Prior knowledge:
Blueprint: H1 6-24, H2 42-60, H3 76-96, H4 99-103, E1 105-108, E2 111-114, H5 115-139, H6 171-179
Antiparallel strand pairs: 1-2
Helix pairs in contact: 1-3, 1-5, 2-3, 2-5, 3-6
Amino acid sequence: MTHPFSLFAESYETERLKTLSVWAEFRDDELAFRPAPLARTPHEHMVHQCVSEQGWMIRMLGIDIGRPELPPVEDRLSFLRHYDEVSRLRREVLDAKEPEWFGEPTTFFDVPRTRAWVLTRRLVHSAHHRAQLTVYLRLLDRPLYSTYGPTADTGGLFQHQAPVIYRYPSAEALLEAEAAGGGAWPDLPGPGPRAPTERP
Length: 200
């Protein structure tokens, strides 16, 4: 069923793939990387994403898919498989909701809000932490593939016709490749002779 609130299920689907894609760029031996004393490691970010999202979904939105909040083994591939499963199931629940459900009241911690409001905050909360991890990848000298658009690695600025390049076309392709030891790293063109920012 498609309705104006279908944008939440559709957005959640793309956001979960973006999260999996960023997680997959880390190597197993980089999960303990801590760029500053008070910063989370990639491993701790994965834990927080799983625990936080499950808490919001159950307590604020009433979406309980009956899965544990964390994988039984906390390694990179297990986190990828676990988050793929739980986020896919949550997306299916969101897909089935009637339009009225999104406008109904709930509690955001101790503040009354609508479910649509909470879902919006959930999406941006996840994007916030995912962006922190892309900074980690920069510090580790790893290439950055697209999340919302071009990066300096994929060609620089949109106004310079820089392309959007994803490492994987789907969650299924990502999991299959990572389970086999890691997929290909498509070549990225970089910004060329033009500056990758508006203020060179």
